[in-house]
Amino acid sequence: QVQLVESGGGLVQPGGSLRLSCAASGRAFSINWAGWYRQAPGKERELVALITSGASTDYADSVKGRFTISRDDAKNTVYLQMNSLKSEDTAVYYCYADTMKRGYWGQGTQVTVSS
Question: pLDDT for 12-23, tens place per residue?
Answer without folding.
Answer: 999 999 999 999
